[in-house]
Amino acid sequence: MGKIKRILDLYMSGTFSASTQSSFRKWLLASRENQELDHELSNLWENMSYAASFSRRSRRQDLRDVHQRLGWSDNGLFIPRWAIAVGIAAIFALFVSEYLYLTKLDKGDVSVQTCLAASESGKSYYCLPDGTHVWLNSGSTLTYVDNTFSDKVRTVSLTGEAFFDVAKDESRPFIVQTEDISIKVLGTQFNIRTPLFFDDYQISLESGKVQVLGLSREVILLPGQQCILSKASGQVLVRRTDVSNYSSWFSDAISFDNQTLGDILINLEHWYNSRIITSDQVDLSKRLSFTLKPEPLENTLVLLSKLTGYSYDTTESKMIKVTTIN
Prior knowledge:
Order of helices and strands: HHHHHEEEEEEEEEEEEEEHEHEEHEE
Strand order of the largest sheet: 1-4-5-7-8-11-12
Number of helices: 8
CATH topology of the largest domain: Jelly Rolls
Helix content: 25-40%
Number of domains: 3
Number of strands: 19
CATH class of the largest domain: Mainly Beta
Distance between the termini: 89 Å
Structural class: alpha+beta
């Protein structure tokens, strides 16, 4: 039996210690141009594909090993032949995938993904490698691969809500991808909320110009405009709005100077990443003046109740209901 075949057999037997596995990985990288290794890998695959060289007991054990690695349990149940074949192939796939990954890693071909996140009860600020500034609202995440900022297109993926101050680079567009749509910009400031907790997308543009893709029609937003996409119905609405109501949630404090209750509630929706619903009897034209600093939602609702005389009730699904007090 050749040396390489013995090494592969030992690996497949699962008897390697952690330190030996480390040495094995180094050997893999050093041997990736080895024709004998390629030959033995082919033989190993042929043996597994036809299963003729494996006893029924060994095939069952191979499958159990795979289940253990996946956190499953056989519970003494009968294992059909197709499952045994899948188990054998899975073990080999794990081996080959590790080999290919390590080879790519050594060549610098593997991309590492970075995930930025905000806690469920807070907000986070990040500066991306290209100089773009991002504020994430509570429970939101932003992901990208490490080499995206050296590509012709800078691409990030968002879940939740974020405000972007994109570093301008006319030769490399900046694209924010979500589950259903993409927002393409060159250099601009905008806020985007995706349906993490709610039912629609909101893209509010503060400066510059953005292109919203993936809709029933292409939408170009100009400063002071907002695009609302209903995930449930697919309806698209573009309107002019006071964008500051949608992009002040990441500030240290919000000052309301004779502002309407309607505008204040929009600010609070984003400040606390909650949905606020009002009854028809609530007068949204009421004007209030006060300064809001970071504090628990309950304290803010008590203050609003004193200022407006309305009832503010919270639900378990990040929703606030505003009603009149009978």
